[in-house]
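Tutorial sheet, problem 5. The two components below are modelled jointly, 975 residues in total.
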Amino acid sequence: MTEIVTSQTPPILHGPSEKERKYDRQLRLWAASGQAALESANILLVNSGAGTVGIETLKNLVLPGIGRFAIYDDTVVTEADLGVNFFLDDACLGKSRSQSLTALLLELNPEVEGAWYPNTEATTLAALLTTSPTFTAIVYTYPIQQEHLSALAEYGEKHKTPLFAVHSAGFNSYFKISLPGAFPIVDTHPDETATTDLRLLAPWPELVSFAKDMTKDIGNLNHFEHGHLPCVVILLHYLDQWRETHGGSYPSTYKEKTEFRRIVQNAARTDNPEGGEENFDEAVAAVLKTVVSPPLPSGLREVFEYKRNIPAEQRSGFWIIVDAVEQFYAKHKCLPLPGSVPDMKAQSKVYVQLQNIYKSKARQDAGEVLQIVHATADGQQIDPAEVELFCKNAAFVKLINATGGDSSARISSSDRLKLVVDQELENDENAEAMMMPLSLLPIYLALQATSHVASASEDDILAEVAKVVPGANQIEKIVSAAKEVARAEGGELHNVAALTGGMVAQEMIKIITKQYIPIDNTCIFDGINSRCQVLRL
Amino acid sequence: MASAEVYPASEPARWKYLDNIRTRAGPLTNPDIFDGQVVAQNMENMKILVIGAGGLGCEILKNLALSGFKDIHVIDMDTIDISNLNRQFLFRQSDVGSFKAEVAARFVERRVKGVKITPYNCKIQDFDEDFYMQFQLVVCGLDSIEARRWINAMLVNMVDEEAVDSYKPLIDGGTEGFKGQARVIFPTVTSCIECQLDMHAPRAAVPLCTLASIPRQPEHCIEWAHVIAWDKEKPFPKLDNDDPEHITWLYQKALTRAQEFKISGVTYSLTQGVVKNIIPAIAATNSVIAAACCNEAFKIASNCAPCLGMPGENNYMMYSGNDSIYTYTFQHEKKDDCPVCGNLARELVIENPEWTLRELVDSFAVRPEAQLKKPSIRSESKTLYMQSPASLEEQTRPNLDKTLKELGLTDGQEIGVTDPAFATVSFKFKLKFKQAAA
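Model answer (structure tokens):
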């Protein structure tokens, strides 16, 4: 009779705090680190026009708990506001719009602070920008005064503040992000299925001997043992056999891989009670995906090739780690091992051993990268945790706005727009044959034509677009977009404002938390066809 | 070009922006069905039903109120929990414990003058055809596939080809993290929720033997505590997923088991996530998807621009914000063998002709194309198994252990399946036996 051990210390239980309970559904997306970044964010909204899309954006940031926001809006609340903006009511009529909006937004989350302008302390936008603590990000909505736009652009440049320009009118909208330089993201949250990297074609000694040990007598394993060999071990065993009969090379062509797959399939036992083996099924299914030596992912290649001209960039932790990983890659012809092992049929103990083999190799690789980092000037201060995260995600590291820091690659935004217009119009000619949807650029052009006016006629809009696209009034899609924008007369549809505000908030969260991948750099929405297009403009 | 005339119904100054769009034709407006003079008034008279007053529902109520609808009804049986407050913006800390439908309705009515919102704090299954017949449009913001399938089946069955009013367009939204989808269904005319069921395949269940003897992941230990240890030890009379004491018990059990197998990663948060099947949710995504749904409702009600869901057109928008922003708007085709809206029986592959009826019954829950948890089965000639009433269950139970062959079920035969979750529907399936391995 076994004695029951009662002296074992029960685990310390941390039930979730009140705040963790409130934010539970979002912490599962961006974790405590993302939440901390949000909570220290200070957001400015410069609101104008029909005034809804910016507020819907802020609503989606106040709810998850940004630290602080400020609204600059120099209008008073009118009847028309009450038909489109949810954060105003009849009692607000005739009062400062920024003050009224701030009060009703603050009701959403007692942990958020908010301020409204202009007030007696800052009577103009310029005054607000000079006196306020630095903003983490700024959103402004069209139509906007040219003077405000210039002040914001200058502020963004000076303080390295991301700017979000948003325009919503009738069924259409777009928003554009201006980042103060190249924007790297390490914690990109790739789909779990994309991250498997088992190194079956470049196994290291510990993995080799583990697999060999389990399969040295594979024919004589009993049904239970044979049916619980992890698929990684199965594949390593038969790859080894393949090499022996193929002059030392691995299956590389599609034909060879399907042949290899057949070999694995045939090695499964069918004379057992189940009439088949799940672990072999898993191995067969994994052949095409895991029997590969992954090329350098394009995202990371872009990071390696990016030319750094700004000294501050050169010294940042991210770029020092990039250099170290590049060195590692040059030496080993592979990236540091991420170290995770997907679930597979195996005995608990065996699976945990396998996990540990991958984990310790990953730790070893990250250690090597850390050594290179430490040997670099300014490398001593870098947090080993940052190196570890980079190594784990190396294949998915991404650089947004990659031409931003490289002045030689910079062209003026109007030249760039002309290039994209040509390209998009050309694509559209083949769109139908290719079963591709049409470009949404005409919507952008029509909206942009009303950047500084409250409302415009179809003819006004076309005349403005013609400055970028000669003969715009002859291009049916542009005429149609101009008509649709003219119909709105500068007014917003609440649904389109709410939808756009949701997208802008998602993007701001990605940029503030440095998690997930933001757009690069303009998103256009067509509310009639319910569709988006992202373009770099 | 002179601007076309605007035709407001009421408070022209307040609804100026809306009336500019809905009462005047745009370049893509279909002139055959659009009449700007009556749009605003028609929308004010429409009755629209919202199902769900949660993350999507709060947004939907706000959006419809600001789209010119005046008579909105909302059904939700849930009460407000603290974890709702990060996105369900009509609720405050002091509302925790109150009915969602009630609180949401009162809030929007207070904020948007002239809108009437009627809340129902109950299940959709509590209402019959007569109730649903009064609405012109239904917008769903639900988190359960089952409720979506139920309302879909109800609306499809309500269609009477002779009566135009019996066609109720259904608009459905759903989100998960930074992703979501919005779709429009014209019952019996275009692809329905049941036609699209395989787009929402259930997560593959972990085999019981993995939980019982070879756990490898923290989730396996939690499922073990949830499925096996709880049943064996019954620490409380009934498991309540919302009771922290119950979750703590499961967490401790799972943790002890994980330590025994040297598995790391069991946390309170993960335990709660696995047991309650929690889907991450944020305000921003709800904002996108609810607005996409209401934008379609607005276009359907006003005809001021083409909507999704017309026959032969796109009816489904997928949205993903994880990696840049990507939308895919496409046409999901209606299925002739849809058990709800099709007229052909759907093929049901029988893996092994030696199967017992029990194996067939059990397989319905996990088949992506069926997903029926409590199926009752009839063949063309007789009742094979009934889940209820108890007397019939008892009478038919012996059939469970007979093989399909013994029950006279052969290749190509049709069976009818009903499930208490979809009271009104009989799912038609046609058996297709896989040939036994040689």
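Marking note: The mean pLDDT of chain B is 92. Full credit if you identified this.
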